């Protein structure tokens, strides 16, 4: 980060005979809004730099979540494959049996198989922040990857 003292720079530009207490106070008040703008620019630059340097690597997403929520127990584990699914097309009420010998009695589609790329494991204390965590992970993950959030109890 760069450091620049606006007040000291202006004081050095004022001729020594004009460096009276009242005039310096007036300069300080006049520069206070500009100083506030420069400080908010520094804060914005810090957060923008943090967002730009974020990579979609899983280990960095894990570190980002732990840093953001002040924890060290959020972790990301390997995903798994769900499906393919089998559904009964027209099940009678209360029956969910599959009869493979009858025509059109079941639907089996390998396109229904879904692969979860990774699992974000969060402690139960952070349950209320699950949507925020999902938004953060959605922002930083690779486009083709999918994830789910699992809550574990300590």
Structure, explained:
The protein is of the alpha+beta class. The chain folds into two domains: 47 residues; 95 residues, no CATH class. The chain is built from four helices and seven strands, in the order αααββββββαβ. The strands form three sheets. It has a three-stranded mixed beta sheet with strand order 1-6-7, with helices on one face. The protein has a two-stranded antiparallel ribbon with strand order 2-5. Strands 3-4 form a two-stranded antiparallel sheet. About 3% of the residues have low confidence.
How would you summarize this macromolecular structure in one to three sentences?
By secondary structure, this protein is of the alpha+beta class. 40% of the residues lie in helices and 17% in strands.
Relevant terms:
alpha+beta; 3-stranded mixed sheet; two-stranded antiparallel ribbon; 4 helices
Number of helices in the DSSP assignment: 4
User: What is the radius of gyration?
Assistant: 29 Å
Number-wise, the strands total 7
SSE class: alpha+beta
Biggest β-sheet description? 3 strands, mixed
**Mean pLDDT, all residues:** 78
Please give the oligomerization state of what you see.
Answer: single chain
- SSE ordering: HHHEEEEEEHE
Poorly predicted regions are 98-102
* Strand coverage percent: 15-25%
Number of domains in the coordinates? 2
């Amino acid at each position: 980060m760069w450091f620049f003292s606006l007040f000291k720079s202006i004081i050095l530009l004022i001729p020594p005979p004009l460096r009276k207490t009242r005039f310096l106070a007036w300069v300080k008040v006049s520069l206070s809004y500009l100083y506030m703008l420069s400080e908010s620019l520094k804060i914005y630059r810090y957060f923008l730099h943090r967002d730009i340097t974020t990579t979609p690597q899983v280990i960095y997403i894990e570190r980002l979540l732990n840093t953001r929520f002040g924890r060290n127990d959020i972790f990301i584990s390997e995903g798994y494959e769900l499906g393919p699914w089998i559904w009964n097309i027209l099940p009678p009420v209360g029956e969910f049996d599959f009869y493979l010998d009858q025509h059109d009695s079941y639907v089996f589609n390998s396109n229904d198989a879904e692969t979860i790329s990774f699992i974000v494991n969060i402690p139960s204390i952070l349950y209320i922040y699950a949507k925020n965590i999902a938004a953060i992970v959605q922002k930083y993950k690779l486009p083709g990857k999918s994830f789910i959030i699992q809550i574990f109890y300590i």
